[in-house]
Amino acid sequence: MASIRSSGLRAASLLGLFVTAHALPHQSSSLLPRDPASFTDLGCVVGSANGQRTLHAKSYASDDMTIESCATFCIKNQFFGVEYGRECYCGDTQSAAAAPASDCSFACPGDATEKCGAGGRLSLYMNELYCPPAPATVPGVPYLGCFVDQGARVLPENLLGADDMTAAKCAANCANYSYFGLEYGRECWCGNSPPKQVAPDAECSFTCSGDETELCGAGGRINVWGAPVQSPTRVGDFTYQGCFTDNRDAHSLLGKTTRSSQMTLEMCAADCSAYAWFGVEYGSQCYCGTSLQPTAEQRPQAECSMRCSGKYSDVCGDADRLNVFTTGSTATGSNLATVDGFSYKSCWTDSTATGARSLVGPDLRSDSMTIETCAAFCKGSAFFGLEYHRECYCGNELGGQAVPEAECGELCSGNSAQWCGGGVRLSVYEVTPVVVPPSSSAPPASSAPPASSAPPASSAPPASSAPPASSAPPASSAPPASSAPPASSAPPASSAPPASSAPPASSAPPTSSTSTSSAPSSTITPPPEEEECDEEDPTSSAPPAVVTSSIS
């Protein structure tokens, strides 16, 4: 019982579809092409071949089928046909083989005076009111054509998929982009760069899901609309020069760089006011420079068509493409030969083989950076370097390597007449070596104060340097000790070695410096009378050289 009910439900469902399909033409009776001139009878043809129906765009079946109802159903197609008495088929192309007219013998159930094909045979007609689908006309936005869209998307932004897709709907979805495109009947894509690879128009054959009179690309094919916005000829003091190439490994403008999600031409011009050139790239990037590098090549304006991220009416280059402006000025920055004990060395990389910075000491960042500011901050270091127009680094060792001077093209944030390195580039200064005068220029010893020429105590003639015993009267002629004359009879001081052989008393070192210890006091036991005599002897302060020699 359940199976019977199920079969009955399926039959009712199919009947509902037929009734709905049959009712649709009658709901659109105003479109019915009743005038015989509105469609042309092409005769009886084979209904299918090699498993493919002759007309395969769409179809429906009805127990009230007529030629007119099928024509109305297929009003937006170029061809229509009826088969097996009650089936209607539509299509825009056909290449069916002809069949004898007698083969199309089934009467139409809705009008027995008409023939509605037969089994495997199609009564074929062409709709004279047919208007082939075409790319829609969008006011103010030119149609560019059919393009290949395989691999990387030609318009990669803001996808919208809809079952009521039209060109107008897609244009509204892509209002903030330079280009929009329709693909696969229901997909809308946006972008700011133009597509490159053109495809034959016939390959964009899908009608739009929201309007069958419009084309919406196909699989891997996209109908594209849009037009590049032209750059203004002047921004402030800068004049537009054109679209140029830019290489991320060797930029065309080597000065200051900025990035902003709100980038405009005016913003970039203000950031580069100290420079003679500026360029905008990839919608949000700004580059400054004192000159345009020789490696930059001019390209067609169409290659610089990406809208500025902060102002849709402006274009800001494209990937590896710059919209370039200049004031025409030839002024450039400079490096200081010397500054506060440092000398300029070279433009230098700010990286080493290990990935470390070239200068690893203290660092400073300032929006008023100058060479002098960095030199003062790094006082006491062997090196300092300026980078990215506002950064200062110090160090006692320098890593990295020298690079061409052009790579240090950013002007200092605090002095637009000075260079302050670049991106990952340092303007390096090293401490100036101190020059020591040669020793020959030192004052001669003779100009030293006289006191220094007095012989030190160690220079005084030691006791052993006193005149040898042979210079004294021989022992044989000397009176014996017992008959020795009193101290008063001893030879006067004048009998001592001449003054030229011994320093005069005035030149003798102070008593405290005199080395009298050369004659041990334990061996000298002068008689009491000699002590009394010594107290009266005015020369008693002199070393007792004579006494020492007489005791020998």
From TrEMBL:
Residues 437-524 have a biased composition (Low complexity). Residues 437-552 are annotated as: Disordered. Residues 38-128, 140-228, 237-328, 341-432 form the WSC domain. Residues 1-23 form the signal peptide. Its main location: membrane. It holds the Pfam family WSC. Residues 528-538 have a biased composition (Acidic residues). It is found in: Membrane. Keywords: Glycoprotein, Membrane, Signal, Transmembrane, Transmembrane helix. SMART domains: WSC. This is WSC domain-containing protein. It comes from Podospora didyma. GO terms for cellular component: plasma membrane. It is a single-pass membrane protein. Residues 539-552 have a biased composition (Polar residues).
